[in-house]
Amino acid sequence: MVDLKTYKKVWHEQEHKEQLDSDTLSKMIHRRSSSIVKWIFYISIIEFVVLTLINVFVKTDWEELKDLGLYHFIIGISILSYIIPLIFIYLFYKNYKSISVIDNTKGLIQSILKTRRTVKNYIFTILALFAFAILYGFRVALQAPEYENIIQKFGENGQLIAWGIVVFFVLIILGIILLIYLLIYGILLKHLKANYKDLISD
Fold first, then answer.
1. How many domains, the chain?
2. 51, 52, 75: which is closest to 62 by C-alpha?
3. Average pLDDT of 87-103?
4. Tally of CB atoms within 10 A around 151
5. How many Cα atoms within 13 Å fall on the side-chain side of residue 69?
6. Cα 172 from Cα 167, distance rounded (Å)
7. 168: pLDDT strictly greater than 70
8. Which one-letter DSSP state was computed for residue 15?
9. Given CA atoms 165, 171, 172, 177 in this order, what sign does their dihedral have?
10. Helices 4-57 and 105-141, interaxial angle, to 10°?
11. What per-residue confidence (pLDDT) applies to 164?
């Protein structure tokens, strides 16, 4: 029969083993989470560079925009399209630096939640800016004399039908953009969510 002293020794060794396994798991989750947040930061930079290059090489008919009364609006939207991504790139960088130095499970959980929230806010903000720019642009354009004949072809409800078509295409474009973002950032967020579940169930 095993005496009490031997039983306590085995019990303490088992407790130490479980604690070691828990610590090892937390460190692994921390490394994975840090790597994911780093990739979110890198991807946001790549996205910004690609969009900047597109804006540089795609020609804009500024004279036509002036005629439509959209010149200053497009300038403002263009500035916002640079400022907003730069703000979120900075936030992603802060998230990465923060998660890199965390040494406790509670802090890691909070950092994961914060990063996921930042990414979702980024996607929502970009989509909202795009939708606003397109809808406002069409609102102004549809009031221009050169588009009146096109609207009149739709009959008495020409304005309503035109807006219906605009909204339909805007929703399709927003859906495509959202799908792209979900493919790019969604996979990383899915892994972060898995890490979060592993931490809270530990």
1. 1
2. 75
3. 88
4. 17
5. 9
6. 9
7. yes
8. H
9. positive
10. 20
11. 84
Number of helices followed by number of strands (H, E) in the chain: 7, 0
- Could you tell me the maximum CA-CA distance found in the chain, to the nearest angstrom? 100
Handedness of CA 167, 168, 172, 173 (dihedral sign): negative
Within 10 Å of residue 17's Cβ, how many Cβ atoms?
Answer: 10
Tell me which residue range forms the domain holding 43: 4-200
CB-CB neighbours of 133 under 10 Å: 18
pLDDT band, very low/low/confident/very high, at 146 (cuts 50, 70, 90): low
- Assigned token pair, 134: 């397109």
Q: How far is 102 from 104, CA to CA, in rounded Å?
A: 6
Q: Are 24 and 198 in contact (CB under 8 A)?
A: no
In order, the DSSP letters of 103-172 are -SHHHHHHHHHHHHHHHHHHHHHHHHHHHHHHHHHHHHHTTSHHHHHHHHTT-TTHHHHHHHHHHHHHHH
* CA distance linking residue 98 with residue 55, whole number of Å: 33
